[in-house]
């Protein structure tokens, strides 16, 4: 927490705006629009809820194809299944680790023509209803290329910007590229409302409809009248108060996380003299990452046989948590039967990758502990 969150929460209590909705919800939505440059925002109970409503608003129904980045957290793909739709997974490219625009187009063409996926699986001829690219660990995906492919085939983009609030590409905020975008304020994200999310978009009618569906889809009548299936997905005024306080420290959080990355880069640069070649997730020209997590790749042949699992275990032995990168969805038991387009880039990233400790509150003493372990693993390799 940054310090001012309690002031907003106290205000919610003092004015008795506890029940869903209230002035903090409106204020937080305005803050998000101002920060991202997006026209409209609906704050919701989670990023997953935002992705689910986004798909509903784009007309995704049972049996439809939805193209989704394979290398991501499962919450990018689960809402496709909530709708009974079919995820079509696309590989990452190695510059940003996000959706490969070339494989995206291959997947779209195969869906439209009823071609086969990369494993020889036959598709029914159907145009995909939506595309879900993700900005992994805060790194902007190749949105210029992805939006161009999407425009060529007239397919809407639902951006999963859950990890990327505060990231920009050529000055445009992540979350402001797609027709719709999802943000998350879960406890582990760059800012948090303990749990929450938002749906962003420039189309006022779509965001109005998101708010309507998120509050049980009540028609305009004195009694309870419903002509749509509704959801209870709205963020409460108390949590939106936390969000408003968090917006005041967002830029500081981004600076802290970027400083973490700079420290790691310096450490791994110095190891180059000893014949190691640890690869970091680098920003392509024009990209600015919030560095939500600092991630590395350790390719064993380029690192005297050292694996990222050896590094992870050494850290764990000192009670320091590091985690593998997201396991690709097309390799997950629950999703492996669905179509996949690509080669093995996301699998390679998963095999070689590690998320290092990346909290906004890491102290010099924490880094001393982390580097002490890392130094000893590399020295003994
Ligand atoms: C966290 C996350 C989500 C889901 O957000 P919740 O608020 O936890 O529901 C979706 N996609 C990605 C890539 C995420 O990291």
How does this model look, in words?
With 381 residues, this protein is an alpha/beta fold. It has 2 domains: 5-249, Aspartate Aminotransferase, domain 2; 251-379, Aspartate Aminotransferase, domain 1. The chain contains 12 helices and 15 strands. It has a 4-stranded mixed sheet with strand order 1-9-8-5, sandwiched between helices. A 4-stranded parallel sheet has the order 4-2-3-14. Helix 1 (5-14) runs antiparallel to helix 8 (237-247), helix 2 runs parallel beside helix 8 and helix 10 (308-317) crosses helix 12. The radius of gyration is 21 Å and the shape is globular. The two termini are 40 Å apart. Bound molecules: pyridoxal-5'-phosphate (PLP). Pyridoxal-5'-phosphate (PLP) binds next to helix 3.
Radius of gyration: 21 Å
Mind describing the biggest β-sheet? 4 strands, mixed
CATH top level label of the largest domain: Alpha Beta
Number of domains: 2
SSE arrangement, N to C:
HHEHEHEHEHEEEEEHHHEEEHEEHEH
Shape: globular
| Helical fraction | 25-40%
CATH topology of the largest domain: Aspartate Aminotransferase, domain 2
